[in-house]
Design goal:
This protein has seven helices and no strands. By secondary structure, it is mainly alpha-helical. Helix 1 packs parallel to helix 3, helix 3 runs parallel beside helix 5 and helix 5 packs antiparallel against helix 6.
């Protein structure tokens, strides 16, 4: 009888974890779907999904990923006020996250890819100043150099 009780207690304790694992895979699937939509040029639908994930997963790795990708989407889309607001939100909500320098560097990379080198330089400089010990400070230095060269600023 005692074994059955212990088994029942263990099983009941695992049920919430099983539910969370399913929820996590759902969020991962939603994020992948948003990525697919963005790649296909369905920016409106991707924006809605990234926004939903960012709000519903605030403070989590998925929330960081969604906010980063939403900001990059706006930069790609040419929605500069939204991109700036997205970056501000990313910094405000995740400034202490271990991957914040990576996320901000990706935003700068998006601007550089869109040939908006001036904005890319601003963001790369922020990464270098804000997280000098992070590996992405080095990648930002490289991006900054490329963008300066593209702007004709050889100095």
């Amino acid at each position: 009888m005692r074994r059955r009780i212990h088994f029942a207690v263990i099983f009941l304790a695992l049920i919430p974890a099983i539910g969370r694992e399913g929820a996590v895979s759902d969020v991962a699937g939603q994020l992948a779907e948003a990525d697919r939509l963005a790649s296909a040029g369905n920016y409106d639908q991707a924006e809605q999904l990234y926004t939903t994930i960012a709000a519903g997963q605030a403070g989590t790795d998925y929330g960081l990923d969604a906010q980063e990708k939403l900001t990059c989407l706006y930069a790609t889309w040419g929605k500069e006020p939204e991109a700036r607001a997205g970056l501000e939100k990313l910094l405000a909500d995740y400034s202490q996250h271990e991957r914040i320098a990576t996320a901000v560097t990706h935003v700068a990379d998006t601007y550089r890819a869109r040939q908006n080198h001036q904005r890319a330089c601003e963001i790369y400089a922020d990464v270098i100043e804000g997280w000098p010990e992070d590996e992405h400070a080095m990648w930002s230095q490289m991006g900054l150099t490329i963008s300066y060269a593209s702007l004709g600023n050889d100095a």
